[in-house]
Amino acid sequence: MNYIGSKLKLSAFLYQTIDDIVGDHLREKIFCDGFAGTGIVGRKFKPYAKQIISNDIEYYSYVLNRNYIGNSTFKPDWNLLIDRLNQEPLISNGFIYNNYCLGSGSQRQYFSDFNGQKIDTIRLKIEKWHSTKYIDDNAYYFLLCSLLESADKVANTASVYGAFLKHLKKSAQADLLLLPASFETSDTKNLVYNEDINTLIKKISGDILYLDPPYNARQYGANYHILNTISEYKPFIPKGKTGMREYETSKFCSKRTVYDEFDDLIRNADFEYIFVSYNNEGLMSLEEIEEIMSKYGNYQCVSTKYSRFQADKTTNRNIKADSTIEYLHILKKNT
Asked: What are the residues facing 329 on neighbouring strands?
């Protein structure tokens, strides 16, 4: 997924830096990814850490990470379920088609009519299998994760879901094909949460805490609202031209509240090492982050340059493809 703030390009840098700081004992360490997003960082550490704790306040993120981090053993018959879902006869009155496709009269075009109907068909079948106990929780989240990623590939947007495009772009004209969201198998039991990190932090502990909070005023619940709608698949009345749903707002996305929220998080974290990703264009200044983290232990900072997030290159909504600086703030917390 072309995801705002994705650490895919930075994952090697993050792993190497954290490994250098913590030492050669990751297998003995509990690693927590507090703002997990699509789970890129947690996936990078999954084969090496003693245990992964993954958390994000967005439910679509929980679905992704419940599969990629929470699932440890892959069952071959799950691929047979993928094949069956691809062959299901389409329904024509599902929630996505009725509210986010032009053919229904919704005046919204997040998906082609075919793809909207296929999303509804697959989503309802997954729910039926789960509610009747035909599949267990692990298979359920594997299939849901597979649907989210497959639907995202054919979405008619400029990468985020704050708006849809007037005409179907080339990738959105392709028929949705459900593909398996394969994950790294492991022999550890990892934990996945769907909570506000400032609440969760008071209930968990570990060795390494990695934080990648929002940097600016963009709310992820708004930018990825369609993914939450597919994930939850509960009826509501979509609002306005874009069909928005109610969403959680983060205090990390407000200049007025971010400083105190960040301080509260670092103060309550029961972890020996804390690593915070933050770029040079965030709501908090480098000085403010250093001021907060230095209160609680030994602080240092490293940085690297990388290309900023880009929207879909095939549209005229491109975000300028220049570079920005990513800072990794490091704290060895006082015990």
From this structure: 276, 301
